[in-house]
């Protein structure tokens, strides 16, 4: 009994081995333990680090800007990549359309070179030329006042290059692969790290969903961004990255001679607009490119107070931009439009899947639902606009024929146009309504020098602008909500997947 009381009053000290291998029963130290796993939780900082790191790595290493302006300085070299990087974060589906459009153009050019038996022109070479990697300088004598401007080098794309070669203005150059690789700044290590980070984030997020653990809206947004940017990077896989110095070829022909031959019939005014002196030859604007040009002009005016000048061959105060813009919405084949539309809808539906997710307030939940529905609707409307732009004339003709047949059947077989009575004062009323809309029409074409190729009808520009504004507000809310919703989350959000904490990748 005395022994039990003594042990209770004076508990035994753990047996601890000292550095000299001797026991020290009186040492005031904690017990040594073996291998210990991490706590089965994660912190808010880990969520932010994982998502932001994945977004920055993926967007920065995936975007491929065009060649910067010749002699533009350090800022011009990073401006194109930075603009694509920010666009990928704010509107990743637009980057997907840019990449798919450039891939489609390069693929068509590759087939065109193959048809004319031009060896050595693969997809990579066509990408290189279309991104502004090949400049041409016309050295021929020119008696015009703009002879000095005509002798400045400027970029040409593959279509313009084939025209010059087919008409004897120059010999088609052979671009060696090593010349492209010498200028290519593609970083294999950075891409490898990015692929590893993206795979790890995707697997971890899907594992949480499989085990019934909730994820934050920031993780869901990052997952949807991964989906879009992976396909964008795949479309740009053969495009050289971060080329800063183009190749320059020379021709002894004068530029005015080339322009006269390219115009059929001659119309000097029609070549007053475009990114380069030869841009009018293969220029094809469509509804999305026109809308994009209008909105970028508005943004430039708001941010810089001015608009970037375009080529005005007939304008004395204009300059020849010596680069192709990195952001161009090119029209592609119908199959690619369908594929791009499908990917855009999947991207929007990933965000829509958080319909019943937890939000700190009911207002945030409602705004999230509205914003994601706007994203899904915007995708459907974009597809409808693309179809109408491609087949609008055919649809209008079919509608006219059907209406004409119905009217003919209703009138007993006579095809007579209905007589519309002229209402006195109607012409004046239309003039008044037209004058009230004059201020609005100015916004439908804000391009420098009022390029007629960018003219949009008000019935197209007004609803398209309203839709873009609504979509922009929805995107801004989603990005803001991704961060402010972290202030209060269910405790299970911070539990980790059991197998993930011992992964060697972590």
Automatic annotation (TrEMBL):
Q: Signal peptide location in the record?
A: none
Keyword Transmembrane helix on entry: yes
Which regions span the lipid bilayer?
A: 47-63, 83-100, 189-209, 215-237, 367-388, 460-480
Presence of keyword Nucleus: no
Q: Keyword annotations for this protein?
A: Membrane, Transmembrane, Transmembrane helix
PANTHER family in UniProt: TRANSCRIPTION FACTOR DOMAIN-CONTAINING PROTEIN (PTHR35043:SF7)
Q: What is this protein called?
A: Uncharacterized protein
Q: Which organism is it from?
A: Akanthomyces muscarius
């Amino acid at each position: 009994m005395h022994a039990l009381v003594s042990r209770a009053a004076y508990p035994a000290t753990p047996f601890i081995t000292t550095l000299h291998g001797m026991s020290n029963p009186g040492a005031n130290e904690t017990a040594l333990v073996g291998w210990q796993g991490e706590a089965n939780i994660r912190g808010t900082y880990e969520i932010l680090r994982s998502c932001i790191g994945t977004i920055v790595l993926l967007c920065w290493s995936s975007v491929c800007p065009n060649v910067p302006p010749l002699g533009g300085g350090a800022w011009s070299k990073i401006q194109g990549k930075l603009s694509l990087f920010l666009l990928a974060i704010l509107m990743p589906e637009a980057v997907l359309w840019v990449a798919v459009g450039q891939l489609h153009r390069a693929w068509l050019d590759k087939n065109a070179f193959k048809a004319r038996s031009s060896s050595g022109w693969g997809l990579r070479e066509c990408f290189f030329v279309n991104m502004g990697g090949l400049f041409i300088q016309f050295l021929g004598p020119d008696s015009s006042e703009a002879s000095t401007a005509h002798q400045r080098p400027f970029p040409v794309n593959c279509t313009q290059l084939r025209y010059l070669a087919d008409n004897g203005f120059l010999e088609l150059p052979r671009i060696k692969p090593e010349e492209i690789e010498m200028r290519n700044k593609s970083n294999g290590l950075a891409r490898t790290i990015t692929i590893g980070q993206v795979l790890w984030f995707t697997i971890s997020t899907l594992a949480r969903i499989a085990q019934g653990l909730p994820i934050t809206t920031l993780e869901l947004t990052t997952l949807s961004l991964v989906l879009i940017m992976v396909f964008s990077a795949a479309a740009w896989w053969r495009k050289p990255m971060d080329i800063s110095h183009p190749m320059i070829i020379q021709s002894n022909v004068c530029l005015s001679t080339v322009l006269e031959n390219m115009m059929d019939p001659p119309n000097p005014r029609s070549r007053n607009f475009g990114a380069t002196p030869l841009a009018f030859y293969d220029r094809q604007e469509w509804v999305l490119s026109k809308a994009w040009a209008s909105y970028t002009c508005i943004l430039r005016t708001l941010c810089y107070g001015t608009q970037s000048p375009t080529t005005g061959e007939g304008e004395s105060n204009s300059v020849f931009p010596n680069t192709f813009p990195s952001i161009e919405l090119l029209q592609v084949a119908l199959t690619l439009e369908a594929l791009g539309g499908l990917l855009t809808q999947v991207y929007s539906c990933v965000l829509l899947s958080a319909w019943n997710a937890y939000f700190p307030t009911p207002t945030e939940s409602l705004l999230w639902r509205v914003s994601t529905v706007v994203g899904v609707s915007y995708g459907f409307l974009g597809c409808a606009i693309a179809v109408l732009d491609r087949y609008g004339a055919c649809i209008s003709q079919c509608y006219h024929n059907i209406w004409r047949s119905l009217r003919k059947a209703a009138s007993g077989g006579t095809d007579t146009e209905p007589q519309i009575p002229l209402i006195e004062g109607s012409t004046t009323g239309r003039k008044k309504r037209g004058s009230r809309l004059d201020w609005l029409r100015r916004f439908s074409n804000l391009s420098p020098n009022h390029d007629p190729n960018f003219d949009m009808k008000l019935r197209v520009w007004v609803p398209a602008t309203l839709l873009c504004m609504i979509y922009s507000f929805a995107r801004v809310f989603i990005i803001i909500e991704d961060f402010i919703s972290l202030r209060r989350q269910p405790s299970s959000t911070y539990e980790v997947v059991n197998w993930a904490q011992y992964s060697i990748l972590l």
